[in-house]
Amino acid sequence: MAEFWEVLHREFVYLWYYFDLQFRQIFWYWVIGMAIGSLISVFAKDRIHRLLAGMNETKWGVFGIVPACLLGIASPLCMYGTIPIAASFRRNGMREDWIAAFMMASILLNPQLIIYSAALGPAALAVRIVSCFLCGITAGVLVRLFCSRKEFFDFTGFEERESHDTHPDPLIRYLLNFWRNLKATGLYFLAGILLSALFQRYVPQDLMVRLFGGDRAWGILMAATIGVPLYACGGGTIPLLQEWLQSGMSLGSAAAFMITGPATKITNLGALKIVLGLGRFILYLVFVMAFSVLTGLLTDLFF
Q1: How far apart are CA 25 and CA 36, in angstroms?
Q2: Other CB atoms closer than 10 Å to residue 83's CB: what's the count?
Q3: Which range among 138-147, 165-174, 284-293 shows the weakest confidence by mean pLDDT?
Q4: Can you say whether residue 109 is alpha, beta or left, with left for phi > 0 and alpha for psi between -120 and 50 degrees?
Q5: Which ranges of 44-169 does DSSP label H, i.e. alpha helix?
Q6: Which of 83, 139, 148, 162 has most Cβ atoms within 10 angstroms of its Cβ?
Q7: What is the mean pLDDT of residues 90-97?
């Protein structure tokens, strides 16, 4: 019995060491990401959406997809917050290819997630930003090419949600938003660090190399596939990705995971299924998987 407790204590010490190491590496990226995300949400969100709404008065045509995509990345809203905004844009006559680019980019990336991803290193951060931007552009172009003569989205029943950032004192408004961010991401962040500690302790490094670093095409397909059920929160997956990259995962496999993860997050899928309908929803899933695999292959080709 004493031997059992000794083994248990030793394993706990090992896990705590890995957990503490990972926590100290990631913690400030998480805090700064929440701080900047709340800053944008409280003081810049409405301006971002007004800029997008103001594009209706321009004659940019297909080139409007580019600023729509950039504004989608800058928007701090989750998908259930983005869809009512997109619905109001559509009711005001905005083109559907612009809306598709805005929504796709908003699903994949936001200012908070950009800061989180900086913990993965400059190469992974650059790949994430560029690939998410191009994915948004591609989504907008495809909607323009193949769905320009019929309605692509069905926003029936989606009304703009009431803002929680209503306190008259700007500092309190900001702190309340930061607290909501903390509650929304904190458990996922700690769970991600715990999972990465378990990987470090119990998963052999050569297994990670075989899965995600040996046969590049297979590793990319695997990473794209596991991104579907595993992704719950951007902050929670950063510790896992950091550990996987250190254990031999190729940057291309990480890029594929960073596309399919947020694009197939269960809350995002629930909202998208409503506005797309079954047929277009299946096309969306095929597009995400194909784009993620292509992104992974090109990333491994150039890095």
Answers
A1: 19
A2: 24
A3: 165-174
A4: beta
A5: 45-54, 65-74, 79-91, 96-108, 111-117, 122-146
A6: 139
A7: 83
